[in-house]
Amino acid sequence: MVEYLDSLTSGVGQDLVEQVVVITDRVSGRLMGIRPDMTPQAARIDAHALNESRTTRLCYCGSVLRAMPTSGDSSRSPVQLGAEIFGNTHISADIEIVRLALDTVRLFTDEPLMIDCGHAGALKSILGSHTQALQSQVLDALARKDLEAMSKLERTVPEIAVLKNAYGDLDTVFSFCESEKILREACSEVGAVREGLEAENVSWYCDFGETHGYSYHTGLVFGIYSLKRDQLLVRGGRYDYVGESFGRARAATGFSADLKTLVRLAN
User: Fold this and answer.
1) Running DSSP on this structure, what letter comes out for residue 249?
2) What is the β-pairing status of strands 252-258 and 231-238?
3) Are 86 and 252 in contact (CB under 8 A)?
4) Cα-flanking dihedrals φ and ψ of residue 55, to 5°?
5) pLDDT digits over 179-212, tens only?
6) How far does the signal peptide extend, from start to end residue (predicted)?
7) Distances from the Cα of 141 to the Cα of 144, 150, 259, angstroms
8) Domains (ranges, CATH) in the chain?
9) What sign results for the dihedral spanned by CA atoms 173, 214, 181, 97?
């Protein structure tokens, strides 16, 4: 649970680095951190301990500690459980992960659920050529759905205009975005996931301006919500190249949830 800080933060996004609770090793004087997320450790296991070229499936469950809650009602010390698929670039892996996440939630509740999809790859293709400072301004405006701020930023980043109407009911978003070249691939991938899960009794929402995990995710991102409680239960998505800093870049997709939150659903 505790590692040297340089090892713990290797290859992770800035948002995760900021969640690390830092302590000092009294023997060596080196900075250490308490893990805020188990996904990087799973990636290291895939890269070093297993070192397989074929598709690998891993699951985990353990305690983590975060400097700040990730949402208003979330715990800083969740018991994180999750699953990851390494080595499969195909959309079928994303479908498998979303289905497994749904099955996991349904072990605890039969409440109506909603899947909220986004696409970090599409967002990066829109913002990637701009400065970090400008990206931060746009991401902040998107996270707050501040249309006034978005309109001002359009003068410098005209490409973001497409994101102002790129959230809502999935079919409504598709009808608007499928004609937009920059979002066409994202629409195709999200559509493939819905088609792969068409037998599931869930509601669908889409937000191509979803900013969570922007520095970490590379493709499809999703959340699973309880409609009864208006509560986020699961987060997940694709994060290809995560093993690059460990010397072995691999395609990856996965999800995580707080076991404490899921257990409360059953009570």
Assistant:
1) -
2) antiparallel
3) yes
4) -65, 135
5) 788 898 999 999 999 999 999 999 999 999 999 8
6) none
7) 5, 6, 31
8) 1-110+249-267 (3.30.930.10)
9) negative
